[in-house]
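Lab notebook, bench 4. The sequencing result for the construct came back, and we need a structural model before the next group meeting so we can plan mutations. Quick request posted to the team channel:

Model the 3D structure of this chain.
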Amino acid sequence: MNYLSLSDYLKDKYETKVYKLSLTSGCTCPNRDGTISTGGCIFCSEGGSGDFAAKFMPLNEQITSARKLVDSKIPAKIPLSERKYIAYFQSFTNTYGDQQRLMTLFKEVLSYPEIVGLSIGTRPDCLSDEMIDFLAALNKTKEVWVELGLQTIHEETARFINRGYELSVFEDAYKRLTDAGLKVVVHVILGLPCESESDILETIKYLANLNPTLFGIKLQLLHVLKGTKLADMYEKEPFHIYELEEYCELVGKCLQLLPKETVIHRLTGDGPKKLLIAPLWSGNKKLVMNTMRKYISNL
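Done. Here's the predicted structure in token form:
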């Protein structure tokens, strides 16, 4: 089975492999600070789903630090001057807070010639018209993606995971973003304890039928991480966690439902090993990706 991976999308557009720099905007989240709720979503760690991001410090220092990590993976034959990156603000809600400060930050990061695009992780209920207009203007010079943590379309599940907004809020944000010409990447968690396989596939079918067609999706394996509410639940009453083969089968079904032009930004994801409680097999990234690619290639 063929699908459009993020790596292939970027290689085709920029004629070279493009790497992500995980940066930090210094934002918090309305689902943590009491505006909507406290404690965040039940699966979210203290790192705000950005455990691998650079520490919050001046932008030039973050970029230098992030590049040191990434450049060690880039073939030496590619000169420093020819390397390209996507600036990825992942932790917490990166359009929440002082709008002018964030606009200045986003504009500054795109001023670096080696950074060809910007990806911003946020919530659909934290996107002002002013911010969308600003990002749309940036998008005319360099590519801008807005990543929304939907996780599920099911309202009962959304309440269970303490998401803090209804599906209609996502739908409104998706329309405003796409009307402005911005590319949207949606995050979906596979394996939430209150969802069946059919529930998960209903979410994928819904996203597959979005208009305009969804630009990108991240399929995220549920991780149980230390220090989360989900970990407390799992300790008190363990719930089913996918085995690797089960997960590969589910991902295959998801890919078969999605439009061919939707970019697959992630097939699984990996939590930090020091926090990972389950599934432990997900800590072996090489094994996971090799198994998954072999399974998908045979579909």
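The CA atoms of residues 81 and 114 lie 8 Å apart.
Will bring this to the meeting.
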